[in-house]
Design a protein that fits this description.
This protein is an alpha/beta fold. It has 13 helices and twelve strands. It folds into two domains: 240 residues, 3-Layer(aba) Sandwich (Aspartate Aminotransferase, domain 2); 140 residues, Aspartate Aminotransferase, domain 1 (Alpha-Beta Complex), CATH 3.90.1150. Strands 1-7-6-5-4-2-3 form a seven-stranded mixed sheet, with helices on both faces. The chain has a five-stranded mixed sheet with strand order 8-9-12-11-10. The longest helix has 22 residues. Bound molecules: pyridoxal-5'-phosphate (PLP). The site of pyridoxal-5'-phosphate has 16 residues, from helix 3 and helix 4.
Length: 394
């Protein structure tokens, strides 16, 4: 697959990093289930010595995901959190990070309960205000971290504007692109230094693997990450790499349906506002989203993540929310997102329970907030399921 003409993502998803296997011609990259590689004599290896360091199945996945993000290098990890932690290990005690204030719960936990202990400090800012990132930069700031859309409030951050600020301050910008996938948002093209994914979500898309990746075109950062990938050792196994490669082949196709279903579901939910149960729907694809204009500019589609707020009525919002989550039949009550199957969850008691209550409430993660990961089932079946669940709320 060496051609100078830049191919489209639908083609890259299937072919990038996947040449036919040279010995047999197998069209699908084999799963190299091996920990070590035989050498002719000391040092006489074929570029592979030990699978923490190199594995051909992992290399195929890394090349594929790098191509999808439009980057030169991909570095794969055992989970999104392993990818995040390894990036943060490029920093040293005394360094300072500026990050958006509405982060994936696990990322916040890494900052607060793992990295602070090792001497990093973090300032959290409103991701909707690019200037806030600039204002928080100090002499010892070494990294800027952005997630967009945020989880679960779906706030957007203008990547190009924050990237300009970072360039001016000569700081690397890392964007967590998990909620959009490479099919819907290209942070490197907007000026980011590196992109991180939990491949567990849309990239794999089939709810059967936990994984992560970092993509960058910065050779120095890549060299450091490659060193840390091997030194820390949070690497994915070859079977997981194979499964992610298999899942990613349909990523652009799946994202089209996630966007269609997401928009249809968001419109249906918004039509329920004012009938006493739903207070507000948050979805970047709706004109009612405060940053809808940025969404249409920065994202190729609105994605499959929707949040909505259940109002208090005769029963408190918490009880009504729990009732809805207990009553869904087709849509599964579960953490995680981005798979072919629809999932529903309650951030305050599930994914974001690790964030202290006061801070959670200050952020707007209220007891009535529900997050929906809209899958690729038939939209009528999804709406019918939510409608029957809503009928049981009181
Ligand atoms: C899930 C997730 C992560 C962490 O990834 P894991 O694979 O669960 O370790 C990071 N960022 C976002 C936005 C996520 O949704």
């Amino acid at each position: 697959m060496t051609t100078n003409q830049k191919q489209h993502i639908e083609t890259l998803a299937i072919h990038a990093g996947q040449p036919a296997e040279p010995v047999t011609g197998a069209i699908t990259p084999p799963v190299f289930m091996t920990s070590t590689y035989v050498q002719d004599g000391p040092g006489g290896h074929k570029g592979y010595e030990y699978s923490r360091t190199h594995n051909p199945t992992r290399q195929a996945l890394e090349a594929n995901l790098a191509a999808l993000e439009g980057g030169d290098f991909g570095v794969a990890f055992a989970s999104g959190c392993a990818a995040t932690t390894t990036i943060l290990h490029t920093l040293s005690a005394g360094d300072h990070v500026v990050a958006g204030d509405d982060l994936y719960g696990g990322t916040y936990r890494i900052f607060e309960r793992v990295m602070k202990q090792l001497g990093l400090t973090v300032t959290y800012v409103d991701p909707m205000r690019p200037a806030a990132f600039g204002e928080a930069i100090r002499a010892n700031t070494k990294l800027v971290w952005v997630e967009t859309p945020t989880n679960p409030l779906l706030k957007l951050c203008d990547i190009a504007q924050v990237a300009d600020i970072c360039k001016g301050a000569k700081l690397p910008l890392v964007v967590d692109n998990t909620f959009m996938s490479p099919a819907l948002q290209s942070p490197l093209a907007l000026g980011a230094t590196a992109v991180v994914h939990s491949t567990t979500k849309y990239v794999n898309g089939h709810a059967d693997v936990v994984g992560g990746v970092v993509v960058t075109s910065d050779p120095q950062l890549h060299e450091r990450l490659r060193f840390l990938q091997n030194a820390i050792g949070a690497v994915p196994g070859p079977m997981d790499c194979f499964l992610v490669m298999r899942g990613v082949k349909t990523l652009p196709l799946r994202m089209e349906r996630h966007c269609q279903n997401g928009l249809a579901m968001a419109k249906w939910l918004e039509a329920q506002v004012g009938r006493g149960l739903i207070e507000r729907v948050i979805y970047p694809g709706l004109p009612s989203h405060p940053q809808h204009e940025l969404a249409t500019r920065q994202m190729k589609g609105p994605g499959g993540m929707i949040s909505f707020v259940v109002a208090s009525g005769r029963l408190p919002a918490l009880t009504r929310s729990v009732n809805i989550l207990r009553a869904v039949k087709l849509i599964a009550c579960a953490e995680s997102l981005g798979g072919v199957e629809s999932l529903i969850e309650h951030p305050a008691s599930m994914t974001h329970a690790s964030i202290p209550v006061a801070q959670r409430e200050a952020l707007g993660i209220s007891d009535g907030l529900i997050r929906l990961s809209v899958g690729i089932e038939h939209i009528d079946d999804l709406i019918a399921d939510l409608a029957q669940a809503f009928a049981t709320a009181d």
